[in-house]
Amino acid sequence: MPIRTALLPVAVAALALLGLLAPVRAQDAQLSIMTGAPSGTYIQFGRDLDRLMGQCGRSVEVVESAGSLENFLAVRQRPNTQFGIVQSDVLEYMQTFAGNDPAIARAIAGVRIAFPLYEEEVHVLARRDIADLDDLAGKRVAIGVENSGTFLTASLILSLTGVEPAERLLTAPADALPQLKAGEIDAFFYVAGAPASLYTEGEIDAERFHLLPIQDATLEAVYSPSTLAAGIYAFQPDPVEMVAVKAVLMTYEYDPRRNRYHRASCRGVSDLASLILNRIDTLRAEGHPKWQSVDLTDIPPGWEIASCVNRGIDPAYQTSCVSATPQATPDSEANEAYRRNICAVIGC
C-alpha cells in the first residue's frame, strides 16, 4: 500500500480526535506551546521559552503531547495555542495530502513557521545481535504512538527501506525501553535531539544494546546525514552514523484586524520572536544543549515565516513585555543632594 494511502487515516483520525474542524472560540490570549513527552527535547525547549518570557514578566504554558502531528494540528485550531514544535518531515507529510483531502487542507491553511530549530537524530535502540535496519525484518519493533513524530518517521523509514518487521508496536519510547530490557521487543525508534534524557538516564547495558547505524541512500534523499559523536551516551562509546530531521517552532498566521484574540495572539508571537532573536546567546548558554546548534536562517523549503514573527524581529519593534525587574527611576537633583549628604555623614 502506498505511503500516502497508508498514513492518510492517521491524520484524519487526529483531526477528529482533537476537534480541529470546529472554529476556535477562545477569547483570551494565554500563550501556550505544544511540546512532547516529559523525557523529550521538545518539552525542555518549551520550558526554556517559558523562562525567557519570564524575564519580561510573562509566561508560556508548556503543554505535554504525543508529539509532532498532534502539535501541528493543535497550532491550527486548539484554543490559546500559538506555538508547537514539530518535525520537518511531518510538515512534508501533511503538505502531501493537502490536495487530496479537504480536512487536511484546512488544517494546513494558516500554519506558519516561527523559527527553524535543530536537527533531531533518529535513534533506533536494538539488541546487540541486530546490526542494521535490514535486520529489523521479522523483528518486534516499537514505532511510537499515533500522532507522534516518532510514529510518522518510523513508518516512513520502514516503508522507504522496504523493511517489514514482524510486529509494529504503537508504544511510546519511554515505555519501549523497559520492554526492550525485558526482552519483550527487539528494537524501538525514537526521534529526539541528542542528548535525549531517555538514554542518559535509562541505565542501558552496552553489552546488550546499541544504537543502529543508519546509512541508506534513499533515506538521505529525505533526511540529513548525521553523526552521533562518541560518548554522547555512556552505552555508546563509538560514533554512530545516523539520519536527522529538522525540528521547527510553528505558529499561526494571526490577523490583528480580525478580532481581539488575533490581535493579542499576534502581539504575543511578536514578543516571543523578539526575545528569541535578541537573547539567542542566553538560550545557547543557559538552555538545552541543542540551542547551540540552532540556525535561525535555515528555513525548511515550502513553508513561510509568520507575519507576526517578522513584525517581532523588525529592529523597530517595541515589545509589550513588562520587565520582571522594575527599572530604577532616576533621582531628582534634590534627592541626589540628600543621598550625597547622608552618605557623607553615615557612609553608604
Summarize the structure.
This is TAXI family TRAP transporter solute-binding subunit. The chain is of the alpha/beta class and 348 residues long. It has one domain (1-317): Periplasmic binding protein-like II (D-Maltodextrin-Binding Protein, domain 2, 3-Layer(aba) Sandwich).
Question: Top keywords for this entry?
Answer:
single chain, 348 residues, alpha/beta, D-Maltodextrin-Binding Protein, domain 2, globular
Structure overview:
The termini are far apart. 38% of the residues lie in helices and 18% in strands. It has a single domain (1-317), classed as Periplasmic binding protein-like II (D-Maltodextrin-Binding Protein, domain 2), CATH 3.40.190. Helix 1 (3-18) packs across helix 3 (68-77) and helix 10 (260-278) crosses helix 12 (307-313). With 348 residues, it is α/β, with parallel strands linked by helices. The chain has 13 helices and ten strands. InterPro entries: TRAP_TAXI (IPR011852). This is TAXI family TRAP transporter solute-binding subunit.
Summed up, the helix count is 13
The amount of beta strand, in percent, is 15-25%
CATH superfamily grouping: Periplasmic binding protein-like II
What's the main sheet like?
Answer: 10 strands, mixed
Number of strands: 10
What is the number of domains? 1
Please estimate the helix content: 25-40%
Integer average pLDDT: 85
Structural class computed from helices and strand pairing: alpha/beta
Which parts are unreliable, with pLDDT below 50 for 5 consecutive residues or more?
A: 1-6, 16-28, 324-328
